Amino acid sequence: MDKTINVTLKVWRQAGPKAKGHFETYKLDNISTDASFLEMMDILNEKLINERKEPVAFDHDCREGICGMCSLYINGHPHGPDSEITTCQLHMRKFKDGETITIEPWRSAGFPVIKDLMVDRSAYDKIMQAGGFISVTTGGVPDGNAIPIPKDKADEAMDAAACIGCGACAAACKNGSAMLFVSAKVSQLALLPQGRVEAKRRVKAMLSKMDELGFGNCTNTGACAAECPKAISITHIARLNREFIKAKLSD
Amino acid sequence: MAKKEQTAAVGTIDAKIPEGPLAEKWTNYKAHQKLVNPANKRRLDIIVVGTGLAGASAAASLAEMGFNVLNFCIQDSPRRAHSIAAQGGINAAKNYPNDGDSVYRLFYDTIKGGDYRAREANVYRLAEVSNNIIDQCVAQGVPFARDYGGLLDNRSFGGAQVSRTFYARGQTGQQLLLGAYSALSRQVGRGQVKLYTRYEMLDIVVIEGRARGIIARNLVTGRIERFFAHAVVVGSGGYGNTFFLSTNAMASNGSAAMQMYRKGAYFANPCYAQIHPTCIPVHGDYQSKLTLMSESLRNDGRIWVPKKKEDAEAIRAGKLKPTDIKEEDRDYYLERRYPAFGNLVPRDVASRAAKERCDAGYGVGSTGLAVYLDFADAINRLGEDVVRARYGNLFQMYEKIVDDNPYKTPMMIYPAIHYTMGGIWVDYELQTSVKGLFCIGEANFSDHGANRLGASALMQGLADGYFVLPYTIQNYLADQIQVPRMSVDLPEFIEAEKGVTDKIKRVMGIQGKRSVDSIHRELGLVMWDFVGMARNKAGLEEALEKIKAIRKEFWTNVYVPGTDMELNVELEKALRLSDFIEIAELMARDALLREESCGGHFREEHQTEDGEALRDDEHFAYVSCWKYTGEGNEPELLKEPLNYEFVQRQQRNYKA
Amino acid sequence: MWLIDSSVGRKFVMGITGGFLVLFLLFHSIMNVVVVFSPEAYNAVCEFLGANWYAIIGTLVLAAGVVIHFLYAALLTVQNLRARGRDRYAVTTRQEGVSWASKNMFVLGIIIIGFLVLHLIQFWSKMQLVELTGHGDHALAADGAYWIQHYFGQPVYCIVYIVLLCALWFHLTHGVWSCLHSLGLDNKTWLPRIKAIANVVATIVVLLFMAVPVYYLIVNVFGI
Asked: Which of A63, A121, A194 lies closest to B139 in CB terms?
């Protein structure tokens, strides 16, 4: 019943952050089209281990599209050639028999390679630490229903909050910009009354941290949103711009 | 101190439950517990292992109070912890829908759902703080679903007759975790939490009977490092991956639990593993994990299999489609067997019912190990748009994986390992049997008894981290304010590190023929076949033998490539597998001992005539606590009796 | 100074200068079309603008707009190249819904600068510059219509202008909405609208500009 295909993989191998990387070519036969892309990578690694070669290092964890850990750039697309999914949700049925698949790590100055296909995305955490929160401490908060929030605002905040912090936006961006990621958090919290209180401080702090960490300038290509596994819209970037300009003009 | 000072009888354990009426225990405890003043908090260090709901919320709350926190996670960011994958929602006794909910009812449902194998006082406290969690999360900016009036919306979940589940689309766990993560990030930014990502704890350091630090491996460089703290808190999640295939994340593991266990913390109720009824069925031997479809789907989806065996056979052979089966030829077996709760029976009941139908030959899908979850009625009743708004992301996920449109044909689902109710034993203060070592979230055993209700895991993780541990840990730390920061060059640290490096050397040195995954897969099959949804004496004994053989295979024939002083994923997996093998044995041992059926633990020898679980309260109303007695020795069984003072134990009934 | 230190500040400057230049182009293109209907009227406009103080200030502001827009573009391009990191992707693709123009704005900008230089040499240096410096042919300095006839009488220049105007069209299709977006002036409802507005504005400006070379091409080559 299972349909299978044969594929050739061109995989980026890089021993460490400073090492020079290169592509290695591997052939895999009889891969079920029902297998997920990462299961195909597991099969490759099992094969390499059995040949007593070093397996390919790549990040992955939940394998259900929510943790944001997986990060492969496949045939020119972060998370591969399918829309609104992460690499772990990509299935081999999206590839043709005999196809050559090129697998690269996220490439951006903000995401240095750790090994092979694994990159360091701690820059995103640093941006969050700069201001991606509402300054409330545990306890002493009002009842959950004390402040009504219009449904459309809550829904739009949820649209932005769906960001999984995978880094596909910066990886897809020809400018290596993290604007979509930053805007998603700024926008979510700016839309909610709880977050408005420190909206100005937040947007300035998060944006300057993003700039400081070596991410590029947004030029509104929209590649980020096109590749975003959670379909975060660039209208959040507009809100970030608006919030930032307003904050600066009111200084 | 308002604690019951009872002398523990031989072989039994004292959980330090405060005196007084159920509803006042927690209030009394807080009123009388010891606190640490702000100046002293600055002098105390706390290690928190894990950044899931429990770990992140605890780390953030402790740091807010002024403690110095060191927070560790194995992923590249705290936001990746597997709490993020919880879909459906979080319970709270807010009674916003005015449908008769109360703290007591949430407590009662949880106790009943856990098949009367949880501690009353803990569960009541959980229900009590549930409302604070919702308030806290809203204040953090968690975008819960709201109604047009701007107020919070609720939905219903299995095992309850009220709508008390708060949700953020199908991504509630994600949103709650991101809330806790943002609170944590704030403290990291303030310098109050020092964050160690891509670090894995490999041992706990105990000095003079108290936990004083950990040994951890930097997963990027391979370096082994030592860390001191006045107390250690572990929120490392469950051990469901013992089964290899589960809904847990790939890196979820039970090694932290085993490290605690080997240092003297009891492992409680290891056999209580939850099998979630609505997962996408297994489809191939290359499969790496199972995907859960939220329980919330059972709100509107109807579960069925064909009534006639020949129809089921035709479907399996691909000759018939589910939509070809006429309404009268469908067996909505949950609605048939449990009219009162219908498709919303608790997870253990729903899972067993699915297995029963499939074993009887009515299963569908190419393997015969699947049942239908059908939305045709809901789509007719509500329209496709409403269904899409409620479950769109889940339907999309299903379609991406299975390549089938669930709006048109029913979903196929089958039970899968999902959550472990068992875990490290803790007392009322969430302290393990090792002083200064605390365990929170799924990693401990405390609140769910033998079966967890849907939307309760998020509640417990956050309750522990935000509202329980930050209080109870002070009761311990108040006595530690005189203890200076210790050097990590103390012999206990050096010895613990040596134990870790020796083990790594041993694993690296085997240089056998088999990959870690191939052995893990073998272990998983044994567990699923013999220690899975239905267990019996002969099977469990066989499992114990097979696990022994797998242990031998691992320690003689595993192959780990590369070196230990670099990023080495295979080494990480090998170390975790060595612990999974030990957990597997504990699970089988515990399951063999527990001669009753309760919650997620179903012994085929103990069932009613119509196949329901049959408890034995007379002999088994206790928590089984396993105490480590050295490598190669049989563990010792200790018992914490579950004295029910407030609730009358009953046969669980979801029929009427 | 946030207008140079922050990425949104830099985009803000790009947006403001770009938007200003778009307004100028709109005016310029409308003014040009006049020549098709009446060379005399066109010359009257030229005369009116001439080398008066307001025209000089206008020219200087325009020049500043172009220079700042270009310098910022260069700065952004260099920074963005650096932000890509050491190794580049072996495979790149253009995502669905991402316009070609948006990924090639700097190249298009360079082409437009080249266009601008050509245009300045052909017209501005013969007209306003002559009036300002006093060197050159004064009689023709205010006769814009003459210069138009002079250059567009040669079909090759018509073709060159038409081709270069295409580059301008691409630049504007992205530039106009991008300007509004960088200023934060859109949302879910308005994003598709400003994109449509951008296409309309770009098309109007470029069609108006093209009308002149196309008209002369038709008149001179086909003799209609």
From this structure: A194
* CATH number belonging to the domain at C2-79+101-222, selected among 1.20.1300.10, 3.40.190.150, 3.40.50.300, 3.30.300.130: 1.20.1300.10
Instruction: Answer with the one of B357, B382, B416 that is the final residue of a domain.
Output: B416
Residue of A nearest to C15 (CA): A219
Quote the DSSP letter at residue C94.
P
Contact A208/C6, CB-based, under 8 Å?
yes
Query: Is the pLDDT at B3 greater than 50, yes or no?
Result: no
pLDDT at C224: 65
Contact assessment for residue C103 and residue C55, using Cβ atoms and an 8 Å cutoff: no
Among candidate residues C181, C224, A154, C189, the one with its CA nearest the CA of residue B151: A154
**CB contact, 8 Å: A108 with chain C?**
yes
Which subunits count as partners of chain B given 3+ CB pairs below 8 Å? A
Element of type H or E holding B71: strand B68-73
Chain-chain contact of A222 with C98 (C-beta, under 8 angstroms): yes
> Is C102 at the interface with chain A, CB within 8 A?
yes
Residue B100 has pLDDT above 90, yes or no: yes
Q: Which residues contact B617 (CB under 8 A, 6 or more apart)?
A: B116, B649
Per-residue pLDDT band for A1 (boundaries 50, 70, 90) equals very low
Nearest chain B alpha carbon to A139:
B136
Same domain, B282 and B404: yes
Given CB atoms, is B401 within the 8 Å cutoff of chain A?
Answer: yes
Q: Could you give the residue numbers annotated as active site of B? A: 347
**What is the residue extent of each domain of chain C?**
2-79+101-222
Cα(B256)–Cα(A17) distance, integer angstroms = 29
Phi-psi region of B112 (alpha: psi -120 to 50; beta: other; left: phi over 0): alpha
Q: Is A111 on the interface with C (CB under 8 A)?
A: yes
- Domain assignment of residue B605, given as a range: 491-622
| Residue-level pLDDT at B8 | 42
**What phi and psi, each to the nearest 5 degrees, are found at residue B152?**
-70, 145
Q: What value does the mean pLDDT take over residues C211-216?
A: 94
Contacts of C102 in chain A (CB under 8 A): 219-222
Q: What CATH number is given to the structural domain containing B551?
A: 1.20.58.100
Taking only the tens place, the pLDDT of each residue in C15-71 is: 999 999 999 999 999 999 999 999 999 999 888 887 788 989 999 999 999 999 999
Q: Domains along chain A?
A: 4-104 (3.10.20.30), 122-249 (1.10.1060.10)
Total domains, chain B? 2
Domain assignment present for residue B220? The answer is no
Q: Specify if B181 maps to a domain.
A: no
Residue B571 included in any domain: yes
CATH of the domain at B325: 3.90.700.10
Which band of pLDDT confidence, cut at 50, 70 and 90, is reported for residue B11? Answer: low
Nearest Cα to Cα of residue B582 among B518, B616, B629: B629
pLDDT band at C221 (very low <50, low <70, confident <90, very high): confident
3-state secondary structure of B423: strand
What is the value of ipTM here, to two decimals? Answer: 0.98
Domain boundary among B416, B442, B472: B416
Mutation target vs C (from A204, A234, A241, A243; most C CBs, 10 A cutoff): A241
Is the Cβ pair C12, A241 closer than 8 Å? yes
Residue B12 pLDDT exceeds 80: no
Nearest-CA distance B362 → chain A (Å):
20
How many CB pairs (< 8 A) connect A and B?
Answer: 220
